[in-house]
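Might I ask for a little of your time on a matter of protein folding? What I wish to show you is a protein chain and, alongside it, a tokenised description of its three-dimensional fold. I should value your view on which stretches of the chain appear to form regular backbone elements. You will find the record immediately after this paragraph:
***
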Amino acid sequence: MVHTIRDVLLVAVGGSLGALTRYGVGLAAGKYLGRGFPWGTLAVNVAGCFVMGVVLEILRDLDARPAEAMTPAVKLQLSLWRQGVAIGFLGALTTFSSFGADTLHELDGGRPWVSLGNVAANVVLSLAAVWVGVMVMRAVD
């Protein structure tokens, strides 16, 4: 039970910080780069994906430790990186980082067609969902 509460708090704190970072980057990008292109979204997507790559390697290294090396401190590090940074912070900063990690996981697993399908499905279905949402709201208005 303690781990569950701790992990929920890590996701909550990380998520709050990620959301605030996303908001701040959006404001700064609009102020300094203009509003003619969604620079803030691009910045958080690219930066979030880079950080996700770093986090995936840190998690891989921590997970690869032998069972006897899995001390409470190592388990806490795993939770901090997984729940606090990957799920919480990066999940609120950009879901594009999770999309990138999932896509790379399929490629690394020798499933390039699943990876390509993931890319196509996410891009096409997400854009379609935004369009449908707009159309629903316009119909209600």
User: Anything to note?
Assistant: The chain has a mean pLDDT of 92. Residues 48 and 70 are 28 Å apart (CA to CA). The helical segments are 2-33, 39-63, 72-93, 96-108, 112-140.
